[in-house]
């Protein structure tokens, strides 16, 4: 997504972005205009179905480059007409304000007033320093919806409420070094975790920038101490693979979590999974192995990850596309799966507040979540490779990629790392290396396909 804020006069660029899908896979539309070093966004209330799946075939219905739906979309004429009308409204407002040559500086506020004068009239103009922290949060969400992910925007939802509960009637102009010092004392007195405190400070830096303060000031930063993250041990991963699950939703989540583990993907990366990412990695003239190509959302790097046979079986079972689930739903379901699998080992989920550590032992099934898949992958690959950090680093996307991110370079890197990485997974999985979860049983002394699931697949 374009992020440039270079001031270029006489030019406006409008992009159409699709926000996260609803339960029917329709996406809300957001138009973002970039001009004069700033941006202006509009949510016109349109819903778009970007693709549909029929059997094994995925049909694209939206073209991101043009910002229009394709002619095969059921509402193509209507939607494209509405999108064009909104784009024209934005362009007309801009050129009216910027002048024939586009040289008159235009701000976001000017566009807001030009396009929605009635809404602007109803809201009194208030200096940023006089706004409450809640009002700043609401405006910040409005400004960056369609630019930041919804999960990131929700990250600070409860911070303003906590600040205003601590000190009622406070406004952004009260933000100062002494304000932060007193607020930190309050958080520590309530034994808030360091991670939570660090999130509060990040929001304070956002507000500081909005009222003209430098976010680089030392008093706006808090050094937190990270608690140890849960990762499954080898025998616990086997239990997760072998447990028989009656609920098909739990079977789905177990497959998704395992595939996330084998590929080192984040939850956001799993949402982008599709069949086109499957590739073959040539080891030599006679041997090739399966791999998945994906661009990591956090690092913006393309990687090719060699995957073991079990991962291939999972992907094929779901045709490389899982139903959309919220992260919260996924976390709830994987906890239920872990409980059914008997993952009762006590793990010290340390509570760290102000650098002071307090033991907090809880069973694994209460702590496991989607992100545990990546930690488990890194830990077990280290174990299976006798401590080769370069392998776990490659799997998790921590390894350096040099000066090139091309597909050729990525595949060449994968070709060199594939034998060692797959050998490490073989060490970890043992006789389950080529087994398929949810079709696996310990009957007859070894892993076999579960009869009921096998018969269902044949049908």
Show the helix and strand layout.
Blueprint: E1 12-21, E2 27-35, E3 38-42, E4 47-48, E5 51-54, E6 57-60, E7 62-63, E8 68-69, H1 76-98, H2 108-115, H3 117-122, H4 133-144, H5 150-154, H6 159-166, H7 177-189, H8 194-210, H9 234-242, H10 248-263, H11 267-270, E9 278-282, E10 288-295, E11 302-306, H12 309-317, H13 327-340, E12 346-348, E13 351-353, E14 356-358, E15 361-363, H14 364-367, H15 372-384, H16 389-395, H17 407-429, E16 440-441, E17 448-449, H18 451-458
Antiparallel strand pairs: 1-2, 2-3, 2-4, 5-6, 7-8, 9-10, 10-11, 12-15, 13-14, 16-17
Would you summarize the structure shown here?
By secondary structure, this protein is an alpha+beta fold.
Provide mean pLDDT, rounded.
Answer: 83
Number of strands: 17
Task: Calculate Rg over CA atoms.
Answer: 26 Å
Low-confidence stretches: 1-6, 399-407, 441-459
CATH superfamily of the largest domain: Intergrase catalytic core
In the CATH hierarchy, the architecture of the largest domain is Orthogonal Bundle
């Amino acid at each position: 997504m374009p992020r440039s804020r270079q001031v270029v006069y006489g030019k406006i660029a409008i992009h159409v972005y699709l926000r996260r899908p609803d339960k029917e896979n329709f996406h809300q539309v957001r138009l973002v205009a970039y001009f004069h070093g700033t941006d202006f966004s509009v949510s016109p209330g349109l819903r778009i179905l970007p693709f549909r799946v029929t059997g094994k075939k995925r049909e694209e219905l939206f073209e991101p480059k043009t910002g229009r739906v394709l002619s095969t979309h059921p509402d193509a004429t209507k939607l494209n007409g509405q999108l064009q009308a909104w784009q024209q409204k934005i362009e007309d407002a801009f050129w009216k304000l910027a002048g024939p040559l586009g040289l008159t500086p235009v701000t976001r506020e000017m566009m807001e007033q030009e396009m929605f004068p009635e809404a602007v009239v109803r809201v009194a103009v208030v200096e940023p320093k006089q706004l409450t922290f809640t009002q700043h949060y609401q405006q910040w969400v409005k400004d960056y919806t369609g630019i930041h992910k919804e999960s990131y925007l929700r990250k600070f939802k409860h911070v303003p409420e906590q600040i205003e509960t601590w000190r009622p009637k406070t406004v952004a102009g009260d933000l100062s070094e002494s304000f932060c010092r007193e607020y930190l004392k309050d958080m520590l007195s309530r034994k808030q975790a360091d991670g939570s405190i660090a999130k509060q400070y990040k929001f304070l830096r956002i507000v500081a920038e909005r009222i003209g303060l430098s976010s680089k000031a030392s008093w706006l930063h808090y050094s937190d101490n990270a608690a140890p993250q849960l990762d499954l041990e080898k025998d616990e991963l086997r239990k997760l693979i072998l447990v028989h699950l009656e609920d098909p939703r739990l079977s789905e989540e177990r497959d998704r979590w395992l595939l996330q583990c084998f590929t080192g993907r984040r939850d956001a990366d799993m949402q982008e999974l599709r069949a086109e990412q499957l590739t073959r990695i040539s080891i030599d003239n006679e041997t090739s192995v399966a791999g998945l190509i994906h661009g990591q959302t956090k690092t913006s790097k393309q990687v090719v990850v060699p995957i073991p046979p079990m991962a291939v079986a999972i992907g094929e079972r779901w045709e490389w596309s899982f139903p959309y689930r919220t992260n919260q739903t996924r976390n709830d379901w994987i906890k239920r799966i872990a409980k059914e699998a008997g993952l009762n080992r006590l793990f010290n989920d340390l509570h760290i507040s102000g650098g002071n550590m307090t033991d907090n032992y809880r069973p694994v099934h209460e702590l496991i979540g989607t992100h545990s898949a990546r930690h488990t992958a890194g830990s077990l690959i280290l174990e299976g490779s006798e401590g080769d950090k370069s392998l776990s680093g490659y799997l998790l996307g921590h390894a350096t990629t040099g000066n090139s991110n091309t597909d050729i370079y990525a595949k060449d890197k994968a070709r060199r790392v594939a034998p060692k990485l797959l050998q490490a997974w073989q060490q970890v999985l043992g006789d389950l290396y080529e087994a398929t979860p949810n079709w696996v049983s310990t009957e007859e002394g070894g892993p076999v396909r579960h009869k009921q699931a096998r018969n269902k697949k044949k049908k």
